[in-house]
Structures are given as C-alpha cells and as structure tokens.
Design brief:
Layout: H1 9-27, H2 34-41, H3 45-51, H4 55-79, H5 84-101, H6 103-112, H7 118-142, H8 152-163, H9 178-193, H10 196-199, H11 210-213
C-alpha cells in the first residue's frame, strides 16, 4: 500500500512555491537551479524532488495558483453586485493590492510562463483570458457599445498595460504605494473610456492582437 501524504505536505509545497517564486523572479527561471532552491528552502535536493518532479512543475504551479488567486478576486468583486464604475474601481484596487503582496509571483507570470510546455502554457493562458474577459465586461458596463465595436478587450489590455508593469518602477520604500496608484489608474481609465464610443465613428477594424484571442 502506498504511503499517504503527511499533514504538512501541502504546507511544505506552498513554502517551496514561495521560495521558488522569489528565486525565479530574482535570477530568471533558467538561471535558477534546483540545488539553489533546495538551499533556499532549507531542505536537501532529494527531498525537494519528493515534492516536485522538476523546475517546470514548480513554474507551472506558481503561475497556475497565482492565476487562481486573481480569478478569485474577480469572482469576489462580481459577487458584490456593484454599480459599473465602483465595480471597475474595485477590480483595479484589488488587483493592485494583490500585485503588491505577490510581486515575485507576478514577475514570474510576466517573464517565465513562456518556458512552460505548450499544454501547461495554454492552461495558464486560458485563465488569463478569463481575467481579461471579466475586465472587458466591467469596462463595457461603464461604456456600453465598446464590445459591439470590438474595443472592450483592447481597452482592457490598455488597462493591464498600465498596471502589469508597476513592479518595474514602483519601489516598495518609495513615496507612492500601490494603494496610492489604484485610484490614479482608475481615474485615468474612466476619464478616457467614457464617451469613447461617440468619438469612434464607424466600425472599428478588428485588431490582430492578444486581446482578440482573450
């Protein structure tokens, strides 16, 4: 009979993911070794392989579990049944809060998902598309008509362009915080998106971008 997992198995896996995210974000996926990760976790290399079969398995779990947290945020905000503008503001605020506390995971998602096997990458990208679709729907509520002109997802991608790279310039000990920037981003987006449909006469050409497949 196979031995069951110990009660601490999942806790240890989570600790490994936390250390791996920090290591991958710091050094890059290909430059970080299993030996370095084992040392960072305070375990032997053979014991590390007891929890994860290889680096790719760890990378997938970091990205996949992080996307699950983002999807849970979307579901939580939608469950509040807010009006259009407060809903969009809540989504931006909650995502910025998550980015602040999961910076390593976010960096790994942005820079290292491309190293996953095709099937694993598609699984993560599918969840990313679901997040984009949720933001696009929230933006459509603020400015009805964007979806008809196929602009809802491009505008959502513009929003992510504003917030996804904050880790490159927003310092943890700087004057501005993620909480400070959330209303700034929301205000810029709302002021830019309201009235956009009226300013875009005719049918917008279909843009060939990630937004179209999201």
């Amino acid at each position: 009979m196979a031995r069951g997992k110990s009660p601490t198995f999942e806790l240890q896996r989570e600790a490994i993911l936390q250390e791996a995210a920090r290591l991958f974000a710091d050094k890059g996926f290909h430059n970080a070794s299993m030996a370095e990760l084992a040392a960072a976790c305070g375990v032997s290399k053979p014991l590390l392989y007891h929890y994860y079969r290889d680096k790719e398995h760890i990378l997938f779990d970091i990205a996949d579990s992080y996307m699950d947290r983002l999807l849970a945020i979307v579901a939580g905000v939608e469950a509040q049944e807010l009006d259009a503008e407060p809903q969009l503001a809540a989504l931006v605020t909650r995502f910025m809060e998550e980015y602040e506390h999961s910076q390593s995971q976010h960096v790994v998602l942005v820079q290292d998902v491309k190293f996953l096997k095709a099937e694993q990458a598609e699984h993560v990208v599918g969840k990313q598309r679901a997040v984009v679709s949720a933001f696009a729907a929230a933006i459509e509520r603020v400015e009805p008509g964007l979806k008809k002109r196929k602009l809802d997802k491009p505008v959502a991608m513009i929003l992510f362009g504003m917030i996804n790279w904050t880790f490159t310039w927003l310092s943890a000990d700087g004057r501005l915080t993620y909480a400070d920037m959330a209303p700034v981003v929301t205000t810029i987006l709302l002021n830019g998106v309201k009235g956009l449909v009226a300013q875009m006469p005719g049918r917008a050409k279909k843009a060939r971008s990630t937004a179209d497949t999201a």
